[in-house]
Structure formats: structure tokens, C-alpha cells
Amino acid sequence: MCSIRQLSEEERSLVDSWLESEGIVLNSRSRRDTYSDVRPVAEILKKIYPEIELECYPTVSSFDRRLQNWQIFAFRVLLKLGLRLHNHDLKQLAEGKPGAVDWVLFHAFSHAETFPKVRSCSRARSMGGVSRRQSTKKWRDI
């Protein structure tokens, strides 16, 4: 299991430069307030992983609902990225602890190239008889 840690200066600058290239500005207040909810994080990650369904993560304001959204997101998305978080890590994300969302974004960005892509049905069949249902099985419920 992974545990949230502070990013090094180099790792943090990589995250910040990628976010800046996408037109996303995260200051310390927005990292704490806005990104303690999973919806804005899911919107950022959807740029890399279009399989993420944003409808599953409504914008919420109470801590309990934010924690519940992070638990669902961790199960549906983060596990598929190889990121298995403890409950106290999910609480840090829901509370907006400094550095928590940066760590999740860095981890997701660092796995972007090795992330499984969904193949189209016709291409999948021509590549050995794998149906679309089989090739997208792990992303069906995101």
C-alpha cells in the first residue's frame, strides 16, 4: 500500500509545469479548498485518462461526502493506476492537507504512459480475438 508523502522540489515542479501547460493554476488555497473534493481532481485526470466518468463524482462540500467520494474514486480509478491508499490517506485528501492532492496527481502523471488504453472493438478482434468487453473490463465501472 502507498502512503501520501511530500513531493520533492523536482517532482512538484513537474506537476506544476504540467498543470500550467493545461491552463490549471493551483495556489495553496485552491489546493486546500477546491481540490479536497474529488470532482476537480477527476476532471484533471480525465485529460489523461478519458475513461473516467465524471458523473460518478458529484461536487460536494461536507467532509463526510468528500471522504465518500474519495473512497469511491480510490476504488474505481486509483486502484487501476496501482495506487492503493489507506483510509487515513483518503482523509488527508478530503481534508485538503497540503501536498496530498499533489502526490496523487504526480503518481497519476507518472503512470500515464503505461496506462492501459481501451481498444476499439474491430481492432481488438484483429489483434487476437479479444472482445471489447474483455479489453475494457477493468474500466467498465469508472
Automatic annotation (TrEMBL):
GO terms for cellular component: cytoplasm. It holds the Pfam family CH_2. Residues 16-107 form the CH-like domain. It comes from the Eukaryota. This is GL20240. It comes from Drosophila persimilis (Fruit fly).
